[in-house]
Amino acid sequence: MTLEHIKLAYRRLKSHVYHENSLSVLMSIAKYEDDEIDSKLTKLFEKIQNYKSNNKSSINELIGEIKFSLMPKSFSDDRFDGSGFLYTNQNKKKEYLVDRVTVFIDCPVEIHIISILWIMEIGKYLDKELGPYCYGNRLERNSDDDFEENSIKLFKKYYINYSQWRDQGIQTAKDLHKIGLDVAILNLDIKNYYNSIDFDLNKFEEKIPEHIRWLNQLLIDIHLAYSEILVKNKIISSNKKVLPIGLHSSTILSNYYLVNFDFLVQNKLKPAFYGRYVDDIILVYANAKLKDKDVLENFIIDNLISADVSVNKSEDQLDKIKGDFYIYVESNKLYFQTKKVKLYNFNKD
Fold this sequence. Notes:
Elements: H1 3-18, H2 23-32, H3 37-52, H4 57-63, E1 67-76, E2 97-106, H5 109-129, H6 158-178, E3 183-189, H7 193-196, H8 213-232, H9 249-256, H10 259-269, E4 273-277, E5 280-286, H11 295-305, E6 311-313, H12 317-322, E7 325-329, E8 332-335, E9 342-346
Antiparallel strand pairs: 1-2, 3-5, 3-9, 4-5, 6-7, 7-8
Helix pairs in contact: 1-3, 1-5, 5-8, 5-9
Domain Reverse transcriptase: 170-289
Pfam families: RVT_1
Protein name: Reverse transcriptase domain-containing protein
């Protein structure tokens, strides 16, 4: 790895963040970018070289600056009694009660650069293992399906992939209906996905070229430091290896975490269409049978659980509180958001 790799990673970081809504990272980069930028990147390169030589003190100083920030995800509204929907432009209140929050990593720009370096050197291999049915946060590739090594573009445009994911599912359903088949569309959403993941980055070490494995260990060190902070502040209850929301490497890892689930669905279930946009799943079925009682629950049992694709129905009371259905990834449970499970049925008649 050379200084030029560091500079390219920084340019890629700036290019990608420019098109995001991450104001805090934008502000951090704005402060970081000054007349001393070349010197800063050179110092980061030296710290990385020291880390490779097992002198971790300077990198650990950066890791020691990792914090977290909370952003409201939803607000509770005491004006809503559940009987209907209220919209008004009179939204001024003295205070708002936050219902749910999203936890973001708050870290030095250098940590973000390391995250981009990890994508450039390691994440590209994991991304290539993902099938075409994984739509979100995919890396730019050339006509030979090779990672674009020198372009400042890192990810494909999210809105194009999102539209393709949604539109291809709908188009498949339309095509089946046109030829006289019953069609069912099942939409699933995994609850609190990033903070529910328990990902040991050592599990794919054999896929990484030996000369760059130190970079994977560096990302592991970053993840462990972040998880410890969340445990200390009672954000998570156990020392799970969660993915830091806000690090671009986490978008690759969040896709790869479900790579085996994707494979099982495609090869065991074999739906007419399967598409996953990070934690949002669409399945299209031809001639699926719907039962008269408990339609949604029985549909999931018949078409996911019975097919043995790692989907399970909650049995104990604690699981039922969290969600009625969950995916098993090794020993970890990822719950579907029951309120967001949707089933659309279109008869041929």
